[in-house]
Design a protein that fits this description.
Layout: E1 28-33, E2 36-43, E3 47-52, E4 58-64, E5 67-68, H1 81-86, E6 94-99, H2 101-106, H3 111-115, E7 118-124, E8 127-132, E9 140-148, E10 155-163, E11 169-180, E12 184-188, E13 199-204, E14 208-211, E15 220-223, E16 226-229, E17 238-242, E18 248-253, E19 256-262, E20 278-282, E21 287-292, E22 297-299, E23 304-315, H4 326-335, E24 354-355, E25 365-371, E26 375-380, E27 387-391, E28 397-401, E29 410-414, E30 417-421, E31 426-430, E32 435-440, E33 442-443, E34 446-447, E35 454-456, E36 462-466, E37 478-482, E38 488-492, E39 498-503, E40 509-514, E41 519-525, E42 531-539, E43 554-556, E44 562-566, E45 569-573, E46 579-583, E47 589-595, E48 601-606, E49 609-614, E50 640-643, E51 650-655, E52 660-665, E53 671-677, E54 684-685, E55 692-699, E56 704-711
Antiparallel strand pairs: 1-2, 2-3, 3-4, 4-5, 6-11, 7-8, 8-9, 9-10, 10-23, 11-21, 11-22, 12-16, 12-18, 13-14, 13-17, 15-16, 17-20, 18-19, 19-23, 20-21, 24-49, 25-26, 26-27, 27-28, 29-30, 30-31, 31-32, 33-34, 35-36, 36-37, 37-38, 39-40, 40-41, 41-42, 43-44, 44-45, 45-46, 47-48, 48-49, 50-51, ...
Length: 713
């Protein structure tokens, strides 16, 4: 919160009813509200969120069944940054701010971020994104994303701050929401609190001083690890804080329950105020402020950091219709599935990783891939010789390839092949472990460092990473792409040690992590397989306080949740990059993939063992249709030859019979065209197919041949 010498408390106001005319069929609408002409309203059948981009990107209303929990001061209607600078006032609503308090006032004021105008983009049926101007005093700008669930009150507020100055920025996220006065504020207490009573009060003597020795405030009480504030009109203003680690705040008002959830970072630095993670304030007559405090962010040029809040507004009648039983509220929050820890959306409560490979004498496992609905392949980089191994859910382990030539990452290539990163390059193997094709072994005439991980796109193109560990890199450590026709290009060359790589479920985004960095990056995938707009996607929890996450292999589920192996465990992020949870593994995980009969089992390679854990959301095995059903597996026939290969605008078929059927299919299993050929003479023209890898089936009266063919345009 800002220093009180600059903040004059708001007097009691009489709230007047306001009728808003809006298009009820719209999900996001631009409306006039409280004399601001361009407010954005996101709504579903029962919940409405109103945001004012013109004055700080604040939430003016968050309502359930037309009843808002957010405090408003009608005397401030329509006021903007210019009004605030000429005659200071304390803005109402759901405000967003940056600390620490001393620097906010003494070194910079962040007025542009706190009360300035934001540009707006409607990004979905229930989402808008606001972008601030650059705050010149701080050298940063803010992107604030609001996403409302289509069927509930769940509102995600995601803030990303990016430093574009050439000096290091230093700040904390503050979520300063003013709610209607007269309800009960409920906070969890830390059983291992640094404070004598688990909480502290702020005492003002020119500036706020945090007292954790003998806190005492009217209407503040603690019981059963719960702190409550039940103010009544006329009490003096109170401000207090807790160092809670549970990451939630609750406020009951009349028949409503307002819940905020946010992530507490175990190894984060919470330094202000008094190392509190939540601060609350009431002015004693019109509002209560509830404020999650983010961890300390130290940010260099072009670095970004993100802080998420999750809001819910629920009907919650209590016995006196004003103050609910705090213990019951806490129990409700901790047991209600939709409000529980965000990680419970993917990991069932109580589930943990199970060791599958007891006494198998593995040395360093990597590269798991689930294949053909029944078998898991994985590599052992530490064995001598290095091997590719197999595992079935019946508990059977076998050696698939006795000498793998340093095979690391594996991925499904088609229905009868897997592709692997070997020491020499990227190689395709058949189901006997025999090398059938080398996709890439050099770049510009130079051998690779040590190809590490890979993913196969829907069109058959292959993305792979090439870092170097334990030796001087032979060439630039980079990310590469091999087109379906075999053209190799270097697509990312500005990462320290690119490692894990995976595509989004729709194939339109490429994710790459960096073992010597703490971020996962995302790029847009272009139609030709190239990438653009590389940017930070998620910030990894770093267990030792350094910037090195030891990030390794990744996988993804059908909802777009990303699973990243790291020194801290398997860190899980939602499709927006919001942190969900960390799956703990007894040994450091190196890679993971989904498998099992319902694709909900996460298989994990970790040091010398293989683990699994059952999850709630099915994962993605391959971005290519695993069945390729219409044509099926490749089938060679010496009586039928298709040439040339690669082809361009035509092919020829050499067969002893003059009448046959020619069928082309892409690798997703989609039939592109079928031709019946009579009197087979000369060239057969092809339609305007894009360059890529295809399957072609030739059927005669007595024979059938299925083969792969590359088309180069």
């Amino acid at each position: 919160m800002k220093k009180m010498k600059k903040r004059i408390l708001i007097l009691v106001v009489v709230l007047s009813a306001l009728t808003i005319s809006i298009n009820l069929s719209a999900k996001v609408d631009i409306i006039n509200y409280r004399n601001w002409t361009n407010c954005y309203q996101i709504q579903n059948d029962s919940v409405s969120v109103i945001i004012v981009p013109e004055a700080g990107g604040r939430v003016l209303s968050y309502s359930l069944n037309n009843k808002s929990i957010i405090y408003k001061n009608s005397s401030l209607d329509g006021k903007k940054l210019s009004n605030w600078l000429s005659n200071w006032f304390d803005p109402d609503g759901g405000r967003f701010d940056l600390g620490p308090e001393s620097e906010t006032n003494e070194n910079w004021t962040n007025d542009t971020l706190y009360m300035g105008a934001y540009t707006v983009e409607v990004t979905g049926k229930y989402s808008v994104t606001l972008t601030s101007k650059v705050d010149k005093s701080m050298g940063v700008y803010v992107i604030r994303e609001f996403t409302l669930d289509s069927a509930s009150s769940h509102l995600v507020v995601r803030q990303t701050v990016t430093n574009i100055s050439h000096k290091q920025s230093h700040y904390y996220f503050w979520g300063r929401t003013l709610v209607n006065f007269g309800g009960t504020l409920i906070l969890p207490l830390n059983k291992n609190s640094k404070y004598a009573k688990g909480w502290g009060d702020f005492r003002s003597s020119g500036s706020w001083k945090f007292n954790t020795v003998n806190p005492s405030l009217p209407y503040v009480s603690s019981h059963d690890s719960i702190l409550t504030l039940k103010p009544t009109s006329g009490v003096q203003s109170n401000k207090f804080g807790v160092d809670a680690t549970d990451g939630w705040i609750a406020y009951t008002y009349s028949d409503q329950l307002f819940v905020k959830r946010f992530k507490y970072l175990k190894n984060g630095s919470y330094k202000e105020p008094g190392a509190a993670t939540i601060v609350a304030y009431t002015n004693g007559n019109s509002f209560t402020e509830i404020e999650p405090i983010g961890y300390e962010v130290l940010q260099n040029y072009l670095e970004s950091s993100t802080f998420e809040e999750h809001w819910w507004l629920l009907s919650y009648p209590s016995s006196d219709n004003v103050h609910a039983d705090p213990s019951k509220v806490a129990k409700f929050i901790n047991t209600n599935t939709s409000l529980k820890d965000l990680g419970d959306r993917v990991v069932p409560s109580g589930n943990s990783a199970i060791k599958l490979s007891t006494n198998k004498n593995f040395q360093f496992l990597e590269g798991p891939v689930w294949f053909r609905d029944s078998i898991l392949y994985f590599t052992d980089l530490g064995s001598s010789p290095q091997t590719i191994n197999s595992y079935t859910p019946a508990g059977v382990f076998n050696v698939f390839k006795a000498n793998s030539y340093g095979a690391n990452g594996l991925f499904v290539y088609d229905s009868v092949h897997i592709v692997t990163c070997q020491t020499k390059g990227v190689v395709v193997l058949d189901m006997k472990g025999v090398e059938t094709e080398v996709l890439a072994d050099k770049y510009n005439g130079h051998a690779f460092n040590s190809p590490n991980d890979l993913v196969v796109a829907k069109n058959g193109g292959v993305y792979f990473t090439d870092p170097m560990f334990g030796a001087t890199p032979a060439i630039k450590e980079a990310v590469y792409y091999v087109t379906p026709s075999g053209v190799l290009s270097q697509i990312i060359a500005d990462m320290k040690k690119p490692n894990g790589i995976i595509l989004s479920p729709d194939g339109k985004s490429l994710y790459v992590d960096d073992s010597e960095d703490k971020y996962v990056y995302v790029c847009d995938v272009l139609d030709n397989g190239g990438i653009a707009n590389k940017r930070r996607f998620a910030e990894l929890v770093v267990s030792d306080g350094s910037n090195s996450s030891v990030a390794d292999g990744m996988t993804i589920d059908t909802l777009g949740n990303l699973y990243v192996t790291s020194a801290a465990g398997i860190q899980v992020f939602d499709k927006r990059g919001g942190y969900l949870t960390t799956i703990k593994v007894p040994e450091r995980p190196s890679n993971c993939t989904f498998g099992g009969s319902n694709m909900k089992t996460l298989y994990i390679t970790a040091s010398k063992n293989l683990y699994s854990i059952d999850l709630l959301v099915p994962g993605i095995q391959s971005f290519i249709n695993k069945n390729i059903t219409a044509i099926g597996e490749t089938k060679k026939n010496d009586k039928i030859t298709v040439f040339p290969n690669p082809a361009s605008t035509y092919i020829q078929v050499n067969t002893v019979e003059d009448i046959f059927t020619l069928e082309f299919q892409d690798l997703s299993g989609k039939t592109l065209f079928v031709k019946t050929i009579f009197n087979n003479y000369g060239k057969i023209g092809l339609p305007n197919l894009l360059s890529g890898l295809y399957l072609v089936k030739v059927t005669t009266k007595n024979d059938t041949s299925v083969s792969k063919i590359i088309i180069k345009r």
